[in-house]
């Protein structure tokens, strides 16, 4: 019997991807969170710093945790303050309305805390997105977000 290393073995392609089936009991949560993504690009929740600053008095403090941070597609970490700064200075993207989201999956991480994952297509740029959301009553609060660039899917 010959010995082969793990590196030498071919893994079946169907084992590489996880089973991302949202349990039926989480479907209402999935739908509520799906409507909020891609975060910071939804006109109804705001897409500029001014929108979020207006929300600050009413909603933004509840929407983004005080210690919110994200990992951008570049791999860099960004603070909540940086995200607000970028929102204030970015120009509107005329192609934003053509962005497509798909492959949404929701997983409960703990009491009232959920991981939402999905794929975002921004023209030729494709990324996998992960957002951790916390529910407080009827409100949703974003705790963490990450975007990872991927090749052609």
Characterise the protein shown here.
The chain is α+β, with helices and mostly antiparallel strands and 153 residues long. Helix content is 24%, strand content 37%. It has five helices and six strands; from the N terminus they run ααααββαββββ. The chain has a six-stranded mixed sheet with strand order 2-1-6-5-4-3. The longest helix has 10 residues, at 49-58.
Short description:
The chain is α+β, with helices and mostly antiparallel strands. The protein has helices at 13-16, 27-34, 49-58, 60-63, 80-89, and strands spanning 64-71, 77-79, 100-110, 113-122, 125-136, 139-150. It is globular.
Please count the beta strands (DSSP E, at least 2 residues each): 6
Query: Whole-Å distance between the termini?
Result: 38 Å
**Helix residue percentage:** 10-25%
Query: Strand order within the widest sheet?
Result: 2-1-6-5-4-3
Give the averaged pLDDT, no decimals.
79
Largest sheet: 6 strands, mixed
Could you state the oligomeric state of the chains shown? Answer: single chain
Helix segment tally? 5
- Structural class by secondary-structure content: alpha+beta
Proportion of strand residues: 35-45%
Order of helices and strands: HHHHEEHEEEE
Highlighted features:
153 residues; alpha+beta; six-stranded mixed sheet; 5 helices; 24% helix; globular
Present the secondary structure layout.
Layout (H helix, E strand, L loop, with lengths): L12 H4 L10 H8 L14 H10 L1 H4 E8 L5 E3 H10 L10 E11 L2 E10 L2 E12 L2 E12 L3
């Amino acid at each position: 019997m010959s010995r082969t290393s793990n590196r030498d073995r071919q893994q079946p392609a169907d084992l590489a991807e996880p089973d991302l089936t949202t349990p039926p009991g989480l479907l209402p949560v999935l739908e509520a969170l799906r409507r909020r993504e891609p975060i910071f690009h939804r006109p109804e929740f705001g897409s500029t710093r001014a929108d979020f600053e207006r929300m600050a008095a009413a909603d933004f403090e509840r929407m983004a945790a005080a210690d919110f941070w994200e990992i951008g597609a570049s791999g860099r970490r960004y603070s909540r303050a940086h995200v607000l700064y970028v929102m204030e200075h970015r120009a509107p993207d005329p192609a934003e309305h053509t962005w497509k989201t798909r492959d949404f999956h929701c997983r409960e991480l703990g009491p009232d805390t959920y991981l939402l994952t999905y794929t975002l297509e921004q023209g030729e740029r494709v990324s996998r997105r992960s957002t951790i959301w916390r529910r407080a009553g009827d409100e949703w609060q974003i705790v963490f977000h990450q975007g990872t660039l991927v090749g052609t899917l």
